[in-house]
Design a protein that fits this description.
Radius of gyration: 15 Å
Number of strands: 2
Order of helices and strands: HHEHHEHHHH
Strand order of the largest sheet: 1-2
Shape: globular
Low-confidence stretches: 1-6
């Protein structure tokens, strides 16, 4: 496994030194996202919608996708979050996590965000919420 980097990277990689033991537990079961419910109640976020992203990566979005993705409120979960629930582990397996994120994962996320925004529905949102909860409670050790 590649060495854990500590160079100010804005991605969180499995085994990241910045994550405490309790933080690791919260992240594993996605409990670290619960405080964002306050943002949902304040109307700043939705339960389902494209996840907020670090501005540095938003700047890499193609213009047409950036406008589309940013036209809706960000969410706590989305289809990309469900399909990439093990993102931190994936990043931990590569030599250059940031390069892998930009080259491989970000395009997958953007495709999922685009598809979500263009086809969103209450039924779809409920499906995403159920899949998210299933992933949280059935998460592999």
């Amino acid at each position: 496994m590649p060495a854990v980097r500590d160079d100010g990277m804005q991605l969180t990689v499995g085994g990241d030194r910045r994550i405490t033991r309790s933080g690791s537990f919260l992240r594993k079961y996605k409990l670290d996202e619960l405080p964002q419910l306050i943002n949902v109640l304040k109307g700043e976020m939705s339960l389902v919608g494209p996840r907020p992203e670090v501005p540095r990566y938003v700047a890499m979005y193609p213009e047409s996708i950036r406008e589309l993705v940013l036209s809706v409120r960000p969410g706590i979960t989305d289809p990309a979050s469900v399909s990439l629930m093990d993102e931190s582990s994936l990043l931990a397996q590569v030599d250059d996590p940031e390069e892998y994120y930009v080259r491989e994962l970000l395009p997958r996320k953007l495709a999922a965000y685009r598809n979500y925004v263009l086809t969103r529905s209450l039924r779809g949102d409920l499906s995403i919420i159920l899949r998210t909860l299933s992933g949280m409670f059935c998460h592999r050790a």
